[in-house]
Amino acid sequence: MGVRIIGTGSYLPEKVLTNKDLEKLVDTSDEWIVSRTGIKERRICSDKEAASDLGIKAARRALADANVRVEDIDLLIVATITPDMFFPATACIIQTKLGIKNAAVFDLNAACTGFIYSLSTAQQFLQTGTYKTALVIATETLSKITDWEDRNTCVLLGDGAGAAVLRKQKGDSGILSCYLDANGQYGDLLNMPGGGSRIPATVATVKNRLHYLKMRGNETFRIAIPEMTKSVKRGLEGCGLNIEDIALLIPHQANIRIIKALAKRLSIPIEKVFVNIDKCANTSAATVAIALDEANRQGRIKEGDIIELVAFGAGFTWGSCVIKW
Ligand code: ACO
Questions:
Q1: What CA–CA distance (Å, rounded) separates 279 from 43?
Q2: Angle of CA points 15, 17, 23, to nearest 5°
Q3: Distance of alpha carbon 76 from alpha carbon 88, whole angstroms
Q4: I need a surface site. Which of 138, 156, 229, 291 has the fewest CB within 10 A?
Q5: 217 C-alpha vs ligand 1 centroid, how far in Å?
Q6: Which pTM was predicted?
Q7: Do 59 and 8 contact (CB within 8 A), yes or no?
Q8: What would the CATH number be for the domain defined by 176-324?
Q9: 78 C-alpha to ligand 1 centroid (Å)
């Protein structure tokens, strides 16, 4: 018996924000953004949309793809760093709006690695038989915590959501191994300092722009490459496979230079690496979930293929998930 992903879905907000648009906001250029990051445009949600709204749309598509009814979901995990509000959990908000009853529901915060942490968590519950059908949603509205005056970060981020439905089924397909890791020592390199119990919201915290995402990009970049490389290898070691066995590698999309460096270190041809950073930018936890759905719908994953998901994000957290499709 294996825990399989039986359906995927994603949702990108309608509004497209191009690099040219950003040239009007900060001192940057399309040329700099494309050459330094690989990003050409990103999607931005409307003022009325919150993380739950995006997540619900992705979830409905995943449920339809899996041919699973809402009533059958007994576990809902929502990965996000941009919840609708501190509490209740965005998972509770989505539960009500989708009409899920009699389910365990909770949010999971592992930043960009959130989808992989959530898949692994769902796998444990399904493998033990505690729950039968899990819905994992990764949804982000990073535009709401983006400092549109900070060229170091505002060009990198976007909004979107992805979702997957999981079930334990007969056969050898499914999640073969997950590798999860973290090092909180690096917390200061990528965070949002204001609004929590350490620095509660005041007029001064708003004035000092503490409610926005802050990143020391270059230091983050240098740690991301080795940790993502290690994650891919550890994931494969966990199930006795090799790089050559991978049909498609789906990495977190923070920077095309990170993705290319990763491919080079792993000696995996770039054709076997899924890339959508040009259109979506970095949507934190949602990134790998959206990429998985796009790869699935584009027919880039065939039944029996070995694929690997890998991510790295705030915390720092990092990890991977090897799946036989
Ligand atoms: N336009 C023009 N110039 C810019 C811009 C911009 N948008 N942003 C920065 N620059 C400038 C800098 O000010 C600097 O100028 P200086 O040399 O005069 O000081 C110069 O470009 C180089 O800056 P670096 O930060 O050294 O550039 P780098 O090559 O490292 O690229 C980037 C920056 C794109 C942020 C890169 O470091 C990166 O991708 N980092 C990792 C991101 C990541 O993996 N994040 C983790 C996941 S995110 C999450 O969890 C939400």
A1: 8
A2: 155
A3: 14
A4: 229
A5: 5
A6: 0.97
A7: no
A8: 3.40.47.10
A9: 29
Residue from 170, 119, 174 nearest 6 by CA: 174
Give me the CATH topology for the region 2-171: Peroxisomal Thiolase; Chain A, domain 1 (3.40.47)
Residue with tokens 């499709």: 325
Q: Provide the greatest CA pair distance for the chain.
A: 58
Query: Where do runs of H (alpha helix) occur along 38-193?
Result: 51-66, 90-98, 114-127, 151-154
pLDDT by residue (tens digit) across 194-252? 999 999 999 999 999 999 999 999 999 999 999 999 999 999 999 999 999 999 999 99
Percent residues over pLDDT 90 in the chain: 100
Instruction: Give the atom of ligand 1 at the shortest distance from the alpha carbon of 152.
Output: 8
- Pick the closest to residue 135 from 291, 8, 250, 301 (CA basis): 8
Helices (H), 112-244: 114-127, 151-154, 203-207, 217-237
Which residues have any ligand 1 atom within 6 Å of their CB? Answer: 28, 32-33, 36-37, 111-112, 151-152, 155-156, 190, 217-218, 220-221, 224, 254-255, 258, 282, 284, 312-314
Are 2-171 and 176-324 equal in CATH topology? yes
Give per-residue pLDDT as tens, 77-133. 999 999 999 999 999 999 999 999 999 999 999 999 999 999 999 999 999 999 999
Domain boundaries, the chain: 2-171, 176-324
Q: Which residues are catalytic?
A: 112, 252, 282
Output the CA 215–ligand 1 centroid distance in Å.
9
Question: Beta 317-324 vs 174-182: how paired, if at all?
Answer: antiparallel
Q: Can you state the percent helix, strand and coil of the chain, rounding each to 5?
A: 40, 25, 35
Alpha helices in 238-317 (DSSP H): 256-266, 277-280, 286-297
Q: CA 34 → CA 17, 18, 41, 288, 320, distances in Å?
A: 14, 11, 9, 20, 27
Query: In a 3-state reduction of DSSP, which class is residue 134?
Result: strand
